[in-house]
Amino acid sequence: MKKCKQCDQEKSIDNFYKTIKKQDGTQSYDSTCKDCRIINKKQYQKTDQYKKYTKTYRNKNKENINKNAKDYYIKNKDTEEYKKRKSDYQKTEKSKEYQKKYYQEHKKPLTTK
Predict the structure, then answer these.
(1) Coil, helix or strand for 3?
(2) Cβ pair 22, 28 in contact under 8 A
(3) What is the dihedral of CA 6, 7, 10, 16, to 10 degrees?
(4) Quick check: 37 and 30 in contact, CB under 8 A?
(5) Is 63 helix (H, G, I), strand (E, B) or coil?
(6) What is the model's pLDDT at position 113?
(7) Mean pLDDT across 88-106
(8) pTM to 2 decimals?
(9) Fewest C-beta in 10 Å: which of 39, 56, 67, 93?
């Protein structure tokens, strides 16, 4: 059992992330539990500092990010997990809104002959 320094609850050692091994070979554990770490991470991701950093990173590394995404797609497009994830995404409201917007922007007028 270990006590989290943030929430002051005693939890089993499985609820803490392992940290880097020490020089003597022993393993230590983080002082905050996994639940508190997740909460902290989500709060940080909402800050302007994080948003600014990710935007600049994406702009600097756009080619590399696109290459990795393309490689991932080629490698995984035939797996069941990828197909299920794609199918699940297509059922979401976000996907449906994007499809409508794309159609409105790219629809071609009917031509009569």
Answers:
(1) strand
(2) yes
(3) -50
(4) yes
(5) helix
(6) 61
(7) 92
(8) 0.59
(9) 93
